[in-house]
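Q: Protein A?
A:
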Amino acid sequence: MKCYCLRMGNTFKNVKNSSKNYMVFTLGQRWISDTESELGLGTVVAIDTRMITLLFPATGENRLYARSDSPVTRVIFNPGDTVTSHEGWQMQVDEVRNDNDLITYIGTRLDTEETHVMLREVMLDSKLVFSKPQDRLFAGQLDRMDRFALRFRARKYQSEQYRLPVSGLRGMRTNLIPHQLHIAHDVGRRHAPRVLLADEVGLGKTIEAGMIIQQQLLAGRAERVLIVVPETLQHQWLVEMLRRFNLRFALFDDDRYAEAQHDSDNAFDTEQLIICSLDFVRRNKQRLDKLADADWDLMVVDEAHHLAWSEGEPSREYQVIEKLAEKTPGVLLLTATPEQLGMESHFARLRLLDPDRFHDFAAFVEEQQHFRPIADAVTSLLADHAISQNEMNMINELVGEQDIEPLLQVANSDREGKQDARSELISMLMDRHGTSRVLFRNTRNGVKGFPKRELHAIRLPLPAQYQTAIKVSGIMGTRKSAEARARDLLYPEQIYQEFEGDTGTWWNFDPRVEWLMGYLTSNRKEKVLVICAQAATALQLEQVLREREGIRAAVFHEGLSIIERDRAAAWFASEENGAQVLLCSEIGSEGRNFQFASRLVMFDLPFNPDLLEQRIGRLDRIGQAHDIQILVPWLEKTAQAVLLRWYHEGLDAFEHTCPTGRAIYDSVNAELINYLAAPENSDGFDDFISECRKQHDALKSQLEQGRDRLLELNSNGGEAAQALANTIAEQDNDTELVNFALNLFDIVGINQEDRSDNLIVLTPSDHMLVPDFPGLPEDGCTITFNRDQALSREDTQFITWEHPLIRNGLDLILSGDTGSCALSLLKNKALPVGTLLVEMIYVVESQAPKHLQLTRFLPPTPVRLLLDRNGTNLAGKVEFESFNRQLNAVNRHTGSKLVNAVQQDVHAILTLAEKEVVSEARAVIDAARREASEKLGAELSRLEALRAVNPNIRDDEVEALETNRQQVLESLDEANWRLDALRLIVVTHQ
């Protein structure tokens, strides 16, 4: 690590009398980061035998460095320099005093002209920014031309990307599904979002949560994220976050926790992004306390509907999440729909989000009744018919504090603007909806893109062996309850196995096995998911398929470890030499999605309709490209035959989702069990089926009428959501990104090998700018710029402006001095030989904490100047890319001679540039301040207006936005500019 004395005059000198290759660290010394100069001046705040800690007050961030070979530079000013104190006043340095490696500056204050003023280095302004390009130019440290061009493009593209309204939504490897994008765009931009994601099964709650997490992280609103899930879903979340969002979470279990305890007092402080199971937390109170004290910014809880709660008797699991939610600013709960949960359970989820707002269940129930008129009003506005006087009165009453009569008149006419007026009225009503800001719930009725479901019921004879076993079981099981007998009769192979013991080989005569083998051999190119109730059945089927027909079958059951299940799922998903069939037990398949397959075989039937929907939901998900074929081989004269008819004819549960299933099951449970326990007795069964279907149709109609269309409208985003998806789609396959990325990889030194189908293989080389490029594996990776290609090839990485490879590449170029200084020759006979031009790239920026998201208004913005000896700025007339193509490189030896020859002229031009850049930089800052003031002011006004009519607008949200607005404007007032890169151009005729 080199230690330098840095002068404001921008010349570097070795520290005098230093025989060591690095300075001794002392508390209070000031240093700068060589790789993160935007952090400003750092202060040494901690030292141990191997490490030092620097605090960067300008951004409030800490960095830990090794004491040797660290990328930091000692800052010592020289006499003649002007320094700024942390209070803002400036002083011209007359004398530099070194006391035990701590510097004190003595000089004259410029504001009061007081002399012999002393300023200790620890009191220096931390927002000091250093410009180095001219130092490198005069030292002959010239970069290649292509690196200078890459640096300018990196500045330009980075500035443009920060300003895009869809920033944070483009980088995920997912389909562009409007309702998901809408929810992520809304929630992801909030301060400490606390919401319930309650979409119906298959609509992508995990994807929505991942999008929100990514936006919060990229924007700096969150840095520490905790995901709490059922144990069976840990690895699925781990893989989804990495594969879809490039987010590397650490999975904490008992072993990882024990290991991390050696590294920190609180093991959870060792990682920023953590996934753990609810059971892992629940089992140990001390562990829960540590987790709650780990200062999380955002917590995500999956399967939150399993948290049992009743007034006065919350479950241990509920209490665990409640404690974590109390200490975590942002909370996302992923749960079943309110209709499935029931009112009390739904209230319990809302109570976790805002216990002050949702503290009384009875009051909540009463309040919900008041929102029905709002939903009715929205329904009438959505319908394309005239609004009745009663409906107009109702809307007027609901929006009583505003005069909406003119809007109503337009909305109820055939005049231009009718739809706009209705949309505005709907928006006003949505603002008043009780839970529209904390609850998002999309249903399949409101989302397009789901496949059809087709049932194929295969009738098979009941083998004599099963008939005998069932009869004997009936005789011996007279003391069993009807429900126990019914459950037994659904699985005749288990009854047979119980009597025959280990010698029982039911698979040798069960016609379902023969049918399954025939179906699989006839459809060898199809991926088939087979689900059965018990793990033993799945294991026996795998052995039979492998031994008799050589069918590659993976097994997936609760007896496997999570890693073993992941391997089985990956083998099934693999196109090359993968398993044709995946055999799943009921419990083992929970939470797993296999929408790349479209054929589902139910070897048996589950006992309740929720489990049936869960089975079908493994394939019936958004993103499924084919109609789903549901195949049910059933044995006649068995409980299976009874249950099949009830599900299909009574509930229509195979070919459509069945929201009524649980309610009807509860109401007819006793009758159904009697029919299942005695399948040979069919008296009255047809009437029973008919009655169930009537109940189903009536309940479904009732649910449809009770649909909260206002909530659905708020959740799916309508036309705005589609516009969001279209905007991102238009940015896919950005040719500027492709050209920039390939240029970046080339200059960094990453090997590139073109493959067919828009694929490129990247591998590290021995001559990279850095030994290990962040995000590039040691064995390389395959990339694509095509979203569809990335979705179809899980072994590829989808490259966007938000991908870590690009973001890390931008940071690598811009945080260092790569391309900051160059010299080129311009062959142009229209200009005199020796004509001198200096191209300068200034960066206008403001240092502020990341959470302020200042880059929305003022990202580091390049200002390009092209000056001749007279100070004339030609940048407006000479476009960068076309000019760059006219230039030629010059070797370093010749370049050094040229620089020395024109050094005084360059100094003069740089002096002129400092004056020229002021007006352009100020214009950039003023525009940013106007935009920030207008947008943040409008956001604040809207939120304050909403708070007046909707109690779900939290006070802390309004206060946070007001504080944010003030801090953003203050930071913009302190914005400045610096020289980031320069290029000397000399005209030649040769």
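Q: Protein B?
A:
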Amino acid sequence: MRDEDSMVLLERETALAKVAAALRQARHGRGSLLVVQGPLGTGKTSFLEALARLARDEGVGILRAQGCAAEEGLTFGVLRQLVDSGRCDVTAEPTKARATTAMLARTEAEPSGPGREVSRTAPEHMPNALASILDAVPPDKALLVLVDDLHFADTESLRTLAWELTQSHDRRLLCVFSILSGDARADQPPIKGLIGMADRTAVLSALGPSGAYALITDAFGMAAEQGFVSTLRERSGGNPLVLRSLIDEVRIRRVSPTAENTGIVRALRPDYLRRRLAAFLRSQPAHLRRTVNALAVLGRIVDPQVAARLAGLDALRYAEAVHALGLLGLLDEQSTVRAGGTLLWESLVDSIPTAELTAMRSMAAELLHQAGHPAEVAAEQLMPAPTLNNPKGVRILRNAADSALRRGAPRDAARYLRQALLDSSSVGAVRTGLLIDLASAERSFAATSAQRHVAEALPLLHTARDRAAAVVQLGPLLMEPAEFAIDSLMRDVADDLEASGSDDAPTMELALRLEAHRHALADHNPSHTSEAMRRFKQLGESPPLRTAGQRELLASLAHIAFVTNGASADQLAALCTRLLEREPPRPEHVHTTLPLAVNVLAATGRTVGVSDWLRQARHQGGDVERAIIRAEQAMLALASGNVADAKQEMLRADVLAGPEVSGLPALCTAIFAIVALHSDEPELADEFITLHRLSDTHQYLAALLHMARGLLAARHREDRRALNHFRTAGQRMERIGWLNPTLLPWSSCVALMHHRLGEYEQALTAARLEVDRARTWGAPAVVGHALVALGRVTPGRKGAELLEEAVSLLERSTNSHELCRALYILGCHAETDRTRSTRLLKRAYDLGVQCGADWMVQKITAKLQTARASTRTAHPRLTRSELRVAQLAAEGHSNTEISKELGISSRMTEKHLTQCYRKLGIPGRRGLSAALDKQFGQQAESHEAQTGE
């Protein structure tokens, strides 16, 4: 068997065995009929081609014909092909040849010359010509009669073949006819009669996994990766026609059969396959074509009633069509689920003319909606349309958008609404409503687009109340006031609402929310913050918090009181705690001013319960909501001194802020920079601010940038340059009236640079300024930080006393990082005796490990090692328990595994590890193995000898 035949005959062993058996019988004088059937594209023609090659190799004569739709009406067309092929392929016995000539001569008229030759090929003489060939087969030979696509044969040829088959059982003859299963012509009496005469039937089907793999491997001449093979089979359904079309297309594009190229395979749509399917459908009855088109449009939706209505058929005709499609291999007849692979159905969709397809999709959407299918299922029918002119379709798309928002999928909602905006009938109030709804969906993942669509919708709204309702959907913390003149628009809307004179509850609520948003957007304007502080004082000690508008207003005003240092930490903490107690934890809070209240609580250090509130709010929401909540959680982590956790939260927030989100909003950018500065990574803060929307108009971000660059300059001992950056940062903060040192402790940095430069009076002045402002605010962590700076620039015992005061204050705060810094600086102070210094540094080390401040751990470790070297004290030995924990940790075991192995609590494991790090003078687990090998080898050996482990 040739290689090409082995590929064609993959998984065709049963059919081939039937042919072989029939050929053996034919050689012994027993003729028979084999009918080859199969769905569209299963390789019937290729199977017959392979049979012809096999027969020719074995010396079997062959008559061949090919039915086709174009010649269906040609009288004796198939017979003529058989006769013509017989004149070339069959060698007759001499006696038989003479008999045939005589027979032909008797049945013809007797014209002379060329006229006689023409009459011999006349259609009416084809039956006799075929009979003469069939009778002329030599006794030691057999004859194979192949007719492909018999269902296209003309009636006269079918009748003749039926007659000859009645005589075939005594002939050395094998007839093999192929018929397309499910073709309407196969139900015609002549075809059914021939099928009924078959001695054997071979049914070809789609290739299984092994057959498909063999075909693919042979085509590429190399082993194909499983992912690639699986994708090809999924796309083709194992159908040989579709599979070969895909393979050819892949080879033309020189794509290698690897798993990484599965995406390319999924995108392929061979034009040959589309044309082949279109030609096939044109040859089928109208009701079958309409059913195929309807099912192709509906996709994987199984609803016979909707499909029948879409096809315009009654139940009986639809059932007939489904039966035929099942035979054709396009459907599972029982479930009416599509079969044949995804590419085949995509190609069927592509074969539908564009105008017809658009009309069918519109009708399908309406039918699905009427039948009670989910709105999103119906809406998907409208999504591929390049344009719409269908008010019903717009309603379906809006319903789908509502459904998508309810299930927490704002991107899908926006897709539906954008498609609805393509509808040419959507004008006036309808278009305005679509724009507002789209902005509401987009605010969860594309804040800039949401702003643009609100700005586009505002001029189309007729009342001030409608305009106010549209504007307050957008969170002020996500806005860039300069873009789309949104701050100006908001002022105009607020003025219009006030001018309307309406004082009903909904209007008053909108007015409060607008006021809150305006305060949040204008917090950089000193003249506005003065007005806001007067409004804050008007609210009194117990402002009303019943409505969302009242809570938003308090959040904005509390924020301004915080940044301007116009109220104490205790006062604002009490107000913001009450506020959050009355606000349900929802992700939508990020589109209000409420994150400002969370920020205020973080600055006060009063964060009890806030983390749980945020965790509940984060359960749902889009990328924007989750990014803002991550930033809020980062500020809470910083307030506790957990700088490692804070950094992790901000990195997650940055991942959520992809190109569609247009980067993080200014609030998140500022928080990320603050976290980087607290993590001793000013270069990261510099890079991040530069990357994310820094502009000269955003004074706070500009100040943070100068702070980062000042710290970088100080690290490189460029003291004067660092001082200039810190001063510029302070000028930016003073310009906008942001005086709270929690936001940016620029003055203490100025003090330290003056001190390093020998400018001691200026250093003391700058440090005292920060202490005064910190005491006004009153949060222990902030006052402690300022006192540390003042203690560092104050000479002698007075400096040490200030540091002692700072440590005492920070012991009462929740900020372990600030306490770690203060202990380290006090431990390094010249007035601190050596014994106490060691104790302070060890405590600072433990806190540094706890809060993930690796840079502090390294500095403290270096200081402790220097102190040990100078006093020549012996390296502290690990206890037996500490050594065992250290060994397991060095071997890669987790804390949980160590606790389980040794039967101790997780807390005890952590305590032992912290002691090990301190005693070994290493920052963490990574240096454990080397430290044990270097310094405790003898102790480890002794321990092993004693325990026998």
